[in-house]
Each structure stands twice: as C-alpha cells, then as structure tokens.
Amino acid sequence: MAGLLLVIAHPDDEIFCSGLLAHLSSKGVPLHIVCLTRGEGGQIGVPPKATRETLPAVREREMARAAEVLGVESLVFLEYTDPAPDGSRLRAPDHDAARLEHDIAVQINKFDPDVVLTHGSTGDYGHPAHVLMHRMTKNAASKVGVVLYSFNAFFPGSGRMGALNRNDWATILVDGSPYQQTRFESFWEHETQWSVFVGELSSKEDYRSALQQYFIDTSVESYCRQVAGDASRDLMEEWCREIMIDPPAPNWFMRTRYSLIWTLRELARRIKRIIVR
C-alpha cells in the first residue's frame, strides 16, 4: 500500500502532525492511522460531551471524523484500554510488551508503508503511554526494517519546549500554516478534548477562537528520523520539500546549553511536586 502509517496512543494525538498529514493527503500520499486505545481515560469534555461509560465510543467517532477531514484512508484501533490518571499521574495501558510489539509489527506489515511515524522518545510532554508507543513502535520498525520518524522533535527557539522530546533533535521542520484551516477543522471534531489544549472556556465561540490561535502558534512541526530502515523508501524529505524549513544544525555548545535548560526545568518540576505534597 505504501504511504505513511501513523502509530499513536490516543485519539487526538494526530494533532502533533496534522499539518504534515494534510499536506501528504493533498499530494495523494496514502495515510493510515493505528491507535493504541480509544482514549477511555481522557477528558469527557467541558461542558461534558460524554459519560465515563460512553466516552470510548464517543472518542472513536471523534477520531474517525478527524481522520476523514485529514484524508486518512484507514483507521485501526488496537484492543488496549486507556487507564484514567492516578490523581495527577498519567499512566500507560496494561500490556504485555512482546504482544504489543507484535501487534504493531502486524499493522506495519499489513500496510507496508514507506514511512512509519510515532511519538517521541520522552513521550512528547512526558506521557507514559506516548513513551510506550515510541519504544514499541521503534522495536517493531527496526525488526521489520521500515523507516521510522517521530514527531515533536526538539529544535531551538520553538517556544514549546515542554511539548518537545529533548533527546530527539529535529531532522525535518515543516511549515503547517498552509493547512491551518484543515488542522483546525480536524481537531474541532475532538470536542471532548478541546479543554485539554486551551483550558476550560465558557462558550463554543471561545473554544473556536482559542483553538484557531493554538494552530497559528504551533504551525511549525518537527520530526526526527529514528530508524533508517530501507533508505530507498525514505520519502519524507521528498514529500515535504514544498513546506520544509531548514532546521538549525546542532553543535556541542547548543546541545550542552539545552541539556542544562532541560535539567533545570526537570529539577524545578520535582521541587514543585515535593512542595505540593
């Protein structure tokens, strides 16, 4: 089938690469999504759009509509359950590692993509389920021999350090602004999750304005090659040429500087957690 296979943990995680997906769809590149869970442990919406019992079905429908807006041809849900947070602590689904890696490899072989895309190595903003999907997808991609990229790769000056993967330096930056409206319209389908990205607001129009601004602020998307795979099928640069931005070439000083910044940020978070307790 070729094209691109996106492997994510939850419905709405495609938000992090929706500019790329919209661009590839416009070029006729086949797109497929494999989603680990139905987001059972996520928000039910503010105001509520579901109950805890109906949330899985609601989020599955939201994901299907969002995928349709982005031009995705196939959407597969793996049979794993998204656990609710333990207080403020996010969690990954219960799983057998070998079984999950096998399940992902089955989907890679089924779709035979040129490129697989998944979460970054530190879970984007540190979500354990995202870390899990990165690790399992990387293992599966390495064994199958397919090219793998991750999204939310780090690049200096992004203004979104908390959402980027500090160990994944960007090898490709793209400008998603030509697809701003498509990005917004696809995420608009995830009504239960609006408040996760822009906070709790009082009206639909307030959400609309805030989300439109969110997509303006996050128009640059960043990707890191994780597995070289079959280099002859690595079409990412060719696909992205029209919207590609040259990423800064990291040097020793730059890496050291940002490593120190990340260390200080993590130390500050840990101190804050201790104080709150």
Largest sheet: 8 strands, mixed
Which percent bin holds the helix content?
40-55%
Termini separation: 52 Å
CATH class of the largest domain: Alpha Beta
| Overall shape | globular
Whole-number radius of gyration? 18 Å
Q: How many discrete structural domains?
A: 2
CATH architecture of the largest domain: 3-Layer(aba) Sandwich
Annotated CATH topology of the largest domain: Rossmann fold
The fraction of residues assigned to DSSP E strands is 15-25%
Instruction: State the fourth-level CATH superfamily of the largest domain.
Output: LmbE-like
Please provide a written account of the structure.
This protein is 42% helix and 16% strand. With 277 residues, the chain is α/β, with parallel strands linked by helices. It has two domains: 4-246, Rossmann fold, CATH 3.40.50; 250-277. Strand 4 (115-118), helix 4 (128-144) and strand 5 (147-151) form a beta-alpha-beta unit. The mean pLDDT is 92.
Could you give the topology of this structure?
Elements: E1 4-8, H1 18-26, E2 31-35, H2 55-70, E3 74-77, H3 97-111, E4 115-118, H4 128-144, E5 147-151, E6 153-154, E7 165-169, E8 172-175, H5 180-188, H6 194-198, H7 204-217, E9 220-227, H8 236-240, E10 244-245, H9 252-276
Parallel strand pairs: 1-2, 1-4, 2-3, 4-5, 6-7
Antiparallel strand pairs: 5-9, 8-9, 8-10
Helix pairs in contact: 2-5, 3-4, 5-7
